[in-house]
Structure formats: C-alpha cells, structure tokens
Fold these 2 entries.
Entry 1:
Amino acid sequence: MRDKRIKLIYFSLRGSGIRYFELSWKKLFLILSVLMLFIFVIVGSVIGLFTNYYHDFRISTLNNLNDDLMNQLGEMRAQVATVQTKMESLEENDDQERMIAGLDKIDKDMRGVGVGGTAFSYSDELAAFPKETSEDISSTRAIIDQLERRISLLLESKDEIEKKIQKDKQKLRHTPSIRPVRGGRITDPFGMRLDPFIERIKMHKGIDIAAQVGTPVYASAAGVISLVRNRYTPNRGYGREVVVDHGNGLKTRYAHLSKIFVRVGQKVNRWDKIGTVGQTGRATGPHLHYEVIVSTAQVDPVKYILE
Ligand SMILES: [Zn+2]
C-alpha cells in the first residue's frame, strides 16, 4: 500500500509567504508521539516538583505547629501546677475555718480523692502521641479532674461551715448571757442559805439582784414567754413572775416583779423589757429573783452571765 502523504502548509515571515512541506502519516504520527511523550514528562516533572515542594512545606508547617502545641502544653502544665498550689492554700484555709466553726478537718486522702488512680486512663485516646507526650497529657488531665472534685468538696465544705455558723448563732441567741437588771447588787447567791422567813438552811435556786422598784428587767436571751403570773399571795412564792422558754431545755425565771409587759406565747429577744423589779411574793426588799433552768433543774445563773 502506497504511503499517503500529507501537505503541511505554513507561513514564512521570510520570502514569499505561504510555504509547505510534505510528510507521510507515519512520520507525522511518530513526531506527534514523541512530542506528546515529551509534554507528559515535562508536565509530570513539574507536578511532581510542586507536590514535593508542597509536601515539604506542609510538613514544616505542621512541625512548627507541633512545636507550638508542645510549648502550649508545657505552659498549661505549669498553670495547672499553679492552680494546684492555690487550691492547697484554699483547702488549708478551709480546714482552719472548719476548726473555728467546730467541725472536723477533712483529711488529705478525702480531699485528694483518687490521687494517681486515673493517671493513664486516657491512653487509648492518645495512642497516636509519643509515649512521653501521651503521659504528659493524661497526667495533666488527671490533675484537672482531681481539681474539679476538690472544688466540689470545697464548695460543700463552705456550705457546711455556713450552716454550722448560722446554727451556732441561733443557739447563742437563745442562750442566757446577760444580767437581766442593769446595775443592782447580787445580794444572795445561788446555793444553800439561811432562809430569812423560816430561819432554816434551804436551797436558794437562783440569784437575787437588789434594785429599786420599777427598774427594767430584760430577757437574758431570745425565746418564747411560757408563763406569766400576775396573781400572787403576799409573802408567798415568786410573786409576779415570768418564765421564758429558750428552747433546747433552757428556761429563765424572773420573780417578785412589780409590772409585767409580756404575755404567754410572745416571742422575745435578748434585751427585750419584760417587766420591772418589785417586791411581790416572798421578798424582804425590792429585788429580782433570777433563775436559769436546764431541763428541769435550776443551775447557778452566774454561769450564764457573760458580761
Ligand atoms: Zn431569790
């Protein structure tokens, strides 16, 4: 078969313009193939070069990023350690407050619940990290976990302290602590004494504070008025009297009054005026007979005068 020939026309800038040369199809095909191969190689090399370059670039960027992250991690570890130190001082402070409030200390084991126990519990999540890094991260996270628990415990403790202080305050408010008459002299103490009416040794179940008739008598603590006696027999018993119930088995009695300003069931606070000094009942002169009763027995009221 005769090889078909092909005319290739081109313009020449020199000479007469249009020129042409002839090629066989076979040759043309060969030339095109070589050309194509050449282009492929060139393009492939360029792409390869760029890919390589990009790859290197990415790796170096990631390396830098990794270094930055490691530095950040280091700083965070340092910060966590600072928080830990501050936490320790808060806990010491808490123990001190607990001691003042009359509560038991929280021991170190209880505070640092689960120390070390969770140190490597994150190792599955951190499998891709180098061993040292993964240990760093998991120990830091364990410390943060522990701090979280310590904060919860601290908050609970603060709450407990607050409640205890409130309760103590309440108790203090309801515990007799003052002399119910300003001024005046204790003319008769608590205890055995010679009874001036019957001239025999008898138990004196309160203290007598001598004062003028009309001198104000104050409640010695907060409570509820549980007894008011206005009617009395001259030269007998307590005369006009008031009893205040302070709760917790504590009561106080104010006897031989001339006037009474309260009624049964009324709430009173310390320093509330409940009556005035008198000479009603079995009294040789104007005075207040004051008793402190614990459960059912009278005790020395001087122990409940803290001023
Ligand atoms: Zn008395």
Entry 2:
Amino acid sequence: MPELPEVETVVRGLRKTVLDKTIAKVIVDAPPKSIVVSESFKNKSFESVLKNRTIEQINRRGKNILIGLSGDITLWVHLKMTGHFYYKNIKTKKEKHDLITFHFKKPDSNFKLIFNDYRRFGRNRLYYTNEVMEQKGLKELGPEPLDISPNDFVTLVKSKNRMIKPALLDQSLIVGIGNIYADESLYASKIHPKRILSSLSKKKLIELHGNIQRILSMAIDNMGSSVDTYTGVNGETGKFQNYLKAYGKEGKQCQRCSRKIVREKIGSRSAHYCPKCQKI
Ligand SMILES: [Zn+2]
C-alpha cells in the first residue's frame, strides 16, 4: 500500500499537472462501492457534482489525498492497495483498470487524468469541504510525523502500553507510516518491533522520531518506494526501494552486523528486523 512518501509524491505530481484546471466531464467505469457522494448533494451523481469544477488545492492528510474544488467541495481519495493517478495524453487508449477519467476544459483538453485501480479497494469520495474532515477515516487521524516535534512525539507515545510496530501502523496514533517505513525506522533506531512503547527511554524515542523524519524525507526526495505496483502520476517508479535496509530483506545480511534479517508476523503484519541489532 502506498505510504506517506508515495502519497506525497502523487500529491506533488497532481499539483504539477492538474492544479487550476477545470473539469469538463468525468467518465466513471468503477464498481459502486469505490465511489461515495455525500448525502448533502441530494442524490446528484459523482459526475454531475464534478462537472465544471476547478481544481483549486491538492493536499495530503496521512495517506489520504484531498482535492479542493471550486464551490467548497472536496474530492477525498484513498489509493488503498493499487489505486493510481495517471496524467496522460487524451489520445492514450483506455486501459482495463481505468475506473475514472477526468477530462478538462480548453486549453487543457489535450490531457486526461485517470484513476486506475487493479484491486479496486481505492475510494473516491465527494463531500462539502466543511464536512469532509468530520468523516470516519479522516476525523480520527493522529498527527503528521513530519510536523510533530520530538517532545510532542515522546508525549504522544511514551505512556502507551503496547508493542511499537503495530502502534506505528495505527493511523489514529500517528499517520502515514506503513509497513515499509515502520520497519526501516525501527531498524535505524535499533528497536525490536515487539518492544513495548512505555519501556523505551525518552532518549531512544527522540532518536526514533529523528529516524522517522529522516527516512520519510529521504523517501519523498526519492519519489517513494516501488516495492509493488506503485508509480507516480507520470508513470515513473520511485527509487527509495534501493535504500531499504530491513523491509523485504529477510535472509539478507544486516548491513551493520552481518546477521541475517528475519521476517516475523507481529500483530497482523510481517515485521523485518535484525535479531542481533534489535534486541527485545
Ligand atoms: Zn544487525
């Protein structure tokens, strides 16, 4: 699943391509569950709400994309497993998993924005901007890891009597971190993924905070990690998968101590760590 750096890369790609453009029409070929239109629009269709709207803002909250449209409307998108936005020439043929196509008014009518989703777990939802942040999936989100100060991070997690790896994945505690960046941050900080948060010293938590920020920023600079199907809006893959030290490295030697990285199911997810450097 795309995590913070991948979603941030998509947001930046969308800003470069579709910001300030006006939607001429939208063609939907998606399963009904993948599209939500707020009841406030009184049974208007997804297509009719979007028609003639100008894209005024494009922001990220955790792994969510928030596209602000004229008329105080927000298109809230979650890519889930395999959702992609692609900006393509209008002459490009429709592909099998192109679920939504956005066409733009002149002079931007030579290109289209496509939402493509092979697994079809992605969601496109329309709300009035003043109601969108109250929706489940947005309202309960924790702070942004790149915005939180070291001391606020310590306060947020230090009293938690739970294992650190599942806690880092919990979007209501802190947003945007998924399996890749949790494993990498814990490896860099030499913390075992099963360590209980409240058992870690303040110094160790500040070190972890620094590693989370450093790794997420590096990943954004490298346009994310393409470990599965992820690509940017231009179709290019990310490059940060080349810098991963723990995630997906089971059986490979630890770069610090040469012991083999192991993979273990912790919570409902696989954790990758070095059993020598990351002692419990
Ligand atoms: Zn090691």
